[in-house]
Design goal:
By secondary structure, this protein is mainly alpha-helical. The protein has 2 domains: 1-31; 33-138, Cytochrome Bc1 Complex, Chain D, domain 2 (Orthogonal Bundle). Helices cover 47% and strands 5% of the residues. It is globular and about 40 Å long. The chain binds heme C. Heme C is lined by residues 70-71, 73-75, 85-86, 88, 91, 101, 104-105, 109, 111, 116-117, 120, 124, 132. Pfam families: Cytochrome_CBB3.
Protein backbone atom coordinates (compact mmCIF):
# COMPACT_ATOMS: atom_id res chain seq x y z
CA UNK A 1 0.00 0.00 0.00
CA UNK A 2 1.28 3.50 -0.74
CA UNK A 3 2.06 5.82 2.13
CA UNK A 4 -0.84 8.05 1.15
CA UNK A 5 -3.37 5.21 1.01
CA UNK A 6 -2.07 4.00 4.31
CA UNK A 7 -2.46 7.47 5.79
CA UNK A 8 -6.04 7.76 4.51
CA UNK A 9 -6.90 4.35 5.87
CA UNK A 10 -5.44 5.23 9.27
CA UNK A 11 -7.34 8.53 9.35
CA UNK A 12 -10.60 6.78 8.46
CA UNK A 13 -10.01 4.25 11.22
CA UNK A 14 -9.30 7.00 13.73
CA UNK A 15 -12.43 8.94 12.80
CA UNK A 16 -14.57 5.81 13.01
CA UNK A 17 -12.90 4.98 16.31
CA UNK A 18 -13.76 8.33 17.85
CA UNK A 19 -17.37 8.10 16.64
CA UNK A 20 -17.73 4.69 18.24
CA UNK A 21 -15.97 5.93 21.36
CA UNK A 22 -18.34 8.91 21.66
CA UNK A 23 -21.33 6.59 21.53
CA UNK A 24 -19.90 4.06 23.92
CA UNK A 25 -19.08 6.69 26.55
CA UNK A 26 -22.22 8.76 26.28
CA UNK A 27 -23.62 6.99 29.35
CA UNK A 28 -20.42 5.95 31.12
CA UNK A 29 -18.16 7.51 33.72
CA UNK A 30 -15.04 7.35 31.65
CA UNK A 31 -14.45 10.11 29.14
CA UNK A 32 -11.05 9.21 27.75
CA UNK A 33 -9.13 11.86 25.89
CA UNK A 34 -7.78 10.79 22.52
CA UNK A 35 -4.03 11.28 22.46
CA UNK A 36 -1.95 11.87 19.36
CA UNK A 37 0.64 9.10 19.54
CA UNK A 38 1.82 9.35 15.93
CA UNK A 39 5.31 10.42 17.08
CA UNK A 40 5.81 7.04 18.80
CA UNK A 41 6.80 3.63 17.44
CA UNK A 42 3.58 1.66 16.87
CA UNK A 43 2.97 -1.37 19.10
CA UNK A 44 -0.08 -3.08 17.60
CA UNK A 45 -2.89 -4.97 19.31
CA UNK A 46 -0.87 -7.51 21.28
CA UNK A 47 0.41 -6.12 24.59
CA UNK A 48 4.20 -6.04 24.89
CA UNK A 49 5.56 -7.12 28.28
CA UNK A 50 8.13 -4.47 28.90
CA UNK A 51 7.92 -0.69 28.62
CA UNK A 52 9.06 0.07 25.07
CA UNK A 53 9.31 3.84 25.65
CA UNK A 54 11.87 4.15 28.45
CA UNK A 55 13.65 7.49 28.00
CA UNK A 56 11.58 8.39 24.90
CA UNK A 57 11.07 12.19 25.13
CA UNK A 58 7.86 12.17 23.06
CA UNK A 59 6.42 9.43 25.26
CA UNK A 60 7.20 11.45 28.40
CA UNK A 61 5.27 14.46 27.08
CA UNK A 62 2.34 12.37 25.88
CA UNK A 63 2.33 10.40 29.12
CA UNK A 64 2.27 13.48 31.32
CA UNK A 65 -0.70 14.91 29.49
CA UNK A 66 -2.55 11.58 29.19
CA UNK A 67 -2.07 10.96 32.90
CA UNK A 68 -3.44 14.41 33.78
CA UNK A 69 -6.53 13.81 31.67
CA UNK A 70 -7.28 10.18 32.53
CA UNK A 71 -5.71 9.17 35.83
CA UNK A 72 -5.15 12.31 37.93
CA UNK A 73 -8.73 12.57 39.16
CA UNK A 74 -8.19 9.39 41.19
CA UNK A 75 -4.41 9.02 41.46
CA UNK A 76 -3.67 12.69 42.10
CA UNK A 77 -2.26 15.69 40.25
CA UNK A 78 1.31 15.30 38.98
CA UNK A 79 1.24 11.67 40.24
CA UNK A 80 1.08 12.72 43.89
CA UNK A 81 -1.82 10.81 45.40
CA UNK A 82 -4.32 12.65 47.55
CA UNK A 83 -5.30 9.34 49.13
CA UNK A 84 -8.20 8.18 46.94
CA UNK A 85 -6.07 5.72 44.98
CA UNK A 86 -2.50 4.43 45.34
CA UNK A 87 0.41 6.77 44.70
CA UNK A 88 1.79 5.58 41.36
CA UNK A 89 5.23 7.14 41.94
CA UNK A 90 5.96 4.18 44.19
CA UNK A 91 5.46 1.57 41.44
CA UNK A 92 8.67 -0.27 40.82
CA UNK A 93 10.59 0.73 37.70
CA UNK A 94 11.56 -2.26 35.53
CA UNK A 95 9.71 -5.30 34.30
CA UNK A 96 7.94 -6.26 37.54
CA UNK A 97 6.41 -2.81 37.80
CA UNK A 98 5.59 -2.98 34.08
CA UNK A 99 3.72 -6.26 34.53
CA UNK A 100 1.69 -4.95 37.46
CA UNK A 101 0.92 -1.72 35.60
CA UNK A 102 -0.32 -3.64 32.54
CA UNK A 103 -2.35 -6.00 34.71
CA UNK A 104 -4.12 -3.12 36.43
CA UNK A 105 -4.82 -0.97 33.38
CA UNK A 106 -6.19 -4.01 31.50
CA UNK A 107 -8.23 -5.48 34.36
CA UNK A 108 -9.13 -2.43 36.40
CA UNK A 109 -9.96 -3.02 40.05
CA UNK A 110 -13.17 -4.28 41.65
CA UNK A 111 -13.74 -4.57 45.41
CA UNK A 112 -16.79 -6.38 46.74
CA UNK A 113 -18.37 -6.08 43.33
CA UNK A 114 -17.83 -2.30 43.25
CA UNK A 115 -15.61 -1.02 40.44
CA UNK A 116 -12.82 1.12 41.89
CA UNK A 117 -10.81 1.57 38.77
CA UNK A 118 -12.14 1.20 35.22
CA UNK A 119 -10.37 -1.05 32.72
CA UNK A 120 -8.42 1.84 31.26
CA UNK A 121 -7.09 -0.29 28.39
CA UNK A 122 -10.65 -0.49 27.05
CA UNK A 123 -10.48 3.26 26.48
CA UNK A 124 -6.84 4.15 25.86
CA UNK A 125 -4.36 2.69 23.39
CA UNK A 126 -1.39 0.61 24.40
CA UNK A 127 0.82 3.44 23.09
CA UNK A 128 -0.91 5.97 25.36
CA UNK A 129 -0.77 3.70 28.42
CA UNK A 130 2.92 2.86 27.96
CA UNK A 131 3.60 6.60 27.63
CA UNK A 132 1.89 7.12 30.98
CA UNK A 133 4.01 4.33 32.44
CA UNK A 134 7.20 5.91 31.04
CA UNK A 135 6.25 9.25 32.58
CA UNK A 136 5.41 7.62 35.92
CA UNK A 137 8.81 5.91 35.99
CA UNK A 138 10.42 9.33 35.48
CA UNK A 139 8.53 10.44 38.63
CA UNK A 140 9.48 7.36 40.64
CA UNK A 141 10.35 7.80 44.31
CA UNK A 142 11.18 5.15 46.90
CA UNK A 143 8.46 4.63 49.45
C1 LIG B 1 -11.98 6.04 39.05
C2 LIG B 1 -10.70 6.15 39.73
C3 LIG B 1 -9.47 5.66 39.00
C4 LIG B 1 -9.02 6.05 37.75
C5 LIG B 1 -9.65 7.01 36.77
C6 LIG B 1 -7.76 5.37 37.56
N1 LIG B 1 -7.48 4.58 38.64
FE1 LIG B 1 -5.86 3.35 38.87
N2 LIG B 1 -6.57 2.71 40.66
C7 LIG B 1 -7.70 3.18 41.29
C8 LIG B 1 -7.85 2.51 42.57
C9 LIG B 1 -8.97 2.75 43.58
C10 LIG B 1 -6.78 1.60 42.68
C11 LIG B 1 -6.51 0.62 43.83
C12 LIG B 1 -7.18 -0.66 43.49
C13 LIG B 1 -7.02 -1.73 44.55
O1 LIG B 1 -5.91 -1.90 45.05
O2 LIG B 1 -8.02 -2.40 44.83
C14 LIG B 1 -5.98 1.75 41.46
C15 LIG B 1 -4.83 1.05 41.20
C16 LIG B 1 -3.98 1.29 40.13
C17 LIG B 1 -2.70 0.65 39.92
C18 LIG B 1 -2.04 -0.35 40.88
C19 LIG B 1 -1.28 0.49 41.91
C20 LIG B 1 -0.67 -0.30 43.04
O3 LIG B 1 0.14 0.29 43.80
O4 LIG B 1 -0.99 -1.47 43.23
C21 LIG B 1 -2.19 1.14 38.76
C22 LIG B 1 -0.87 0.78 38.11
C23 LIG B 1 -3.14 2.11 38.24
N3 LIG B 1 -4.21 2.17 39.11
C24 LIG B 1 -2.96 2.84 37.09
C25 LIG B 1 -3.88 3.75 36.59
C26 LIG B 1 -3.67 4.52 35.40
C27 LIG B 1 -2.42 4.49 34.55
C28 LIG B 1 -4.80 5.26 35.19
C29 LIG B 1 -5.10 6.20 34.05
C30 LIG B 1 -4.89 5.69 32.72
C31 LIG B 1 -5.71 4.96 36.29
N4 LIG B 1 -5.11 4.05 37.11
C32 LIG B 1 -6.98 5.51 36.43
C33 LIG B 1 -8.57 4.14 40.80
C34 LIG B 1 -8.50 4.74 39.55
Amino acid sequence: MTAKANFLRTSATLILGSLLATQAFAHGDVTPQKMDVSALPKLGEEWVEENPYVGNEDALKIGESAYAQNCARCHGLDAVSGGIAPDLRYLEPGIEGDEWFVYRVRNGAVRNGVPYMPKMADYLSQETLWSIRAWLVSKHVEQ
